[in-house]
């Protein structure tokens, strides 16, 4: 039997990819409300979600399972911290490299060019799981991309015929999604009043604004971030270690109290001195 004939024989299997964010939450809740067929909801844990996000995921899981639908949480059996602080790939470096650089233990902080965490903690884990299902089923994957996320909608991977974008079909924007979730009683304990996106709290690719908010609203996580930074070899961001950021934010607070600007030449030249001190 040809490959395509075999594929035709396979049963459709509807998966909802659920990150826990506002868009995929709105998609999932609305699909449940409409009574749409869902065979399985898949969520992937990076080990570094906000505590409020873990509570949100648990709450949605209960709703999904009460509707008689399978909810699967995937995670790499090796933790984020393992890859960050311990992992060493002999394949990726010349022979003897680690003997010469014993300090380069673990992959350290991700950069925009080396997003190892997206790959190890999400993509590979999800792909492996889907591969096993694909042997048995014709997978249809529902992805929570909002109608106003034009760039993401246009990506080749999201245009594949086994992908369905329900929010785009319904014309739901990101703002519509958040409102719908709030109306349904899902509020992430205020996470979206602070952040536009709720991804890993320790992400080095987040903006200064997000990091300021992390320090302000989640001091315990900020302290954990400092501890992580003290244990690793790559600088947290190109211009700042976490300690540097702390100095910058403290300096900003001082300037604000004195009604001085925090983005002018005077600010940056004094900041430079403080960071070098
Ligand atoms: S949100 Fe940041 S830390 Fe988390 S997986 Fe993505 S790039 Fe890595």
Describe the structure.
The chain is built from 14 helices and five strands. With 277 residues, the chain is of the alpha/beta class. The protein has a five-stranded parallel sheet with strand order 3-2-1-4-5, with helices on both faces. The longest helix has 19 residues, at 116-134. The chain starts with a helix and ends with a helix. The mean pLDDT is 93. The structure holds iron/sulfur cluster (SF4). Iron/sulfur cluster binds at residues 46, 110, 115, 117-118, 121, 199-200, 203, 205.
CATH class of the largest domain: Alpha Beta
- Beta-strand proportion: 5-15%
Give the biggest beta sheet: 5 strands, parallel
CATH topology of the largest domain, what is it called?
A: Rossmann fold
Gyration radius, in Å: 22 Å
Helix count, DSSP H or I runs of 4 or more residues: 14
Helix fraction by DSSP (H/I, runs of at least 4): 40-55%
Low-confidence stretches: none
Per the principal axes of the C-alpha atoms, what is the gross shape?
A: globular
In terms of quaternary structure, the protein is: single chain
CATH architecture of the largest domain: 3-Layer(aba) Sandwich
**What's the CATH superfamily of the largest domain, by name?**
HUPs
Q: Report the structural category.
A: alpha/beta
Helix/strand order: HEHEHEHHHEHEHHHHHHH
The N- and C-terminal alpha carbons lie at a distance of 73 Å
Major sheet: arrangement of strands: 3-2-1-4-5
Q: What integer is the average pLDDT? A: 93
């Amino acid at each position: 039997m040809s490959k395509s004939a075999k594929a035709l024989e396979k049963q459709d299997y509807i998966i909802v990819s659920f990150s826990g964010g506002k868009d995929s939450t709105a998609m999932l809740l609305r699909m449940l409300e409409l009574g749409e067929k869902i065979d399985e909801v898949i969520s992937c844990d990076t080990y570094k979600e906000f505590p409020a996000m873990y509570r949100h995921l648990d709450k949605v899981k209960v709703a999904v399972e009460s509707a008689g639908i399978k909810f699967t949480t995937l995670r790499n059996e090796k933790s984020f911290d393992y890859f960050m602080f311990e992992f060493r790939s002999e394949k990726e470096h010349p022979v003897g490299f680690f003997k010469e650089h014993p300090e380069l233990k673990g992959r350290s902080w991700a950069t925009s060019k080396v997003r190892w965490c997206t790959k190890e903690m999400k993509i590979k884990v999800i792909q492996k799981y889907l591969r096993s299902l694909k042997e048995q089923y014709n997978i249809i994957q529902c992805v929570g991309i909002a109608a106003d996320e034009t760039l993401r909608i246009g990506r080749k991977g999201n245009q594949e015929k086994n992908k369905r974008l329900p929010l785009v079909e319904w014309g739901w924007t990101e703002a519509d999604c958040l409102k719908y979730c709030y109306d349904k009683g899902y509020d992430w304990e205020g996470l979206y009043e602070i952040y536009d996106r709720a991804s890993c709290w320790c992400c080095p690719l987040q903006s200064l604004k997000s990091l300021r908010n992390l320090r302000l609203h989640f001091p315990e996580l900020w302290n954990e971030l400092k501890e992580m930074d003290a244990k690793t070899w790559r600088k947290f961001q190109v211009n700042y270690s976490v300690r540097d950021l702390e100095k910058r934010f403290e300096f900003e607070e001082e300037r604000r109290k004195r009604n001085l600007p925090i983005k002018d030449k005077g600010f940056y030249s004094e900041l430079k001195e403080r960071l070098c001190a």
